[in-house]
């Protein structure tokens, strides 16, 4: 009697992250915290996103062929902190936004005598 060995097709990814513990999304669906081993039913080009607070989101399209396990390593980069201006403690972008107040104030003060003269007439 001949017994056929059991064989199943598979497609899988093994997702790791540096630092570990990042949230892993496959095709927009949360599948767990890294490291994650995920099995697909058929070959696919999967969108893999890895997120962790304080880090830039990592996102790639990965070809997952039949009968292979694809290793995916997401090396996350820390978010860049905005530099603060020493005198105000505001970030540089906020300090630039506030920079318009000075010129407007000077214009208002320069126009004030003209406006007051106009009210007296």
Q: Write down the overall geometry.
A: rod-shaped
Main beta-sheet annotation: 4 strands, antiparallel
H/E series, N to C?
EEEEEEEHH
Whole-number count of domains: 2
Distance between the termini: 117 Å
CATH C-level category of the largest domain: Mainly Beta
Q: Largest sheet, order of strands side by side?
A: 3-2-5-6
CATH superfamily of the largest domain: Carboxypeptidase-like, regulatory domain
Q: Would you tell me which CATH topology of the largest domain applies?
A: Immunoglobulin-like
Helix and strand content put the structural class at: alpha+beta
Number of H- or I-type helical stretches: 2
CATH architecture of the largest domain: Sandwich
Beta fraction:
35-45%
| Mean pLDDT figure | 82
Sum this structure up briefly.
This protein is of the alpha+beta class and 121 residues long. The chain has two helices and seven strands; from the N terminus they run βββββββαα.
């Amino acid at each position: 009697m001949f017994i056929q060995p059991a064989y199943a097709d598979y497609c899988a990814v093994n997702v790791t992250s540096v630092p570990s513990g990042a949230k892993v999304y496959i095709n927009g669906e949360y599948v767990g915290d890294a490291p994650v081993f995920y099995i697909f039913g058929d070959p696919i080009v999967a969108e893999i996103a890895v997120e962790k607070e304080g880090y830039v989101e990592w996102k790639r399209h990965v070809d997952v062929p039949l009968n292979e396990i694809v290793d995916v390593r997401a090396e996350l980069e820390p978010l860049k902190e905005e530099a603060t201006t020493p005198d105000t403690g505001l970030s540089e972008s906020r300090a630039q936004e506030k920079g318009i107040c000075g010129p407007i104030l000077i214009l208002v003060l320069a126009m004030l005598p003209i406006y007051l003269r106009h009210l007296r007439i």
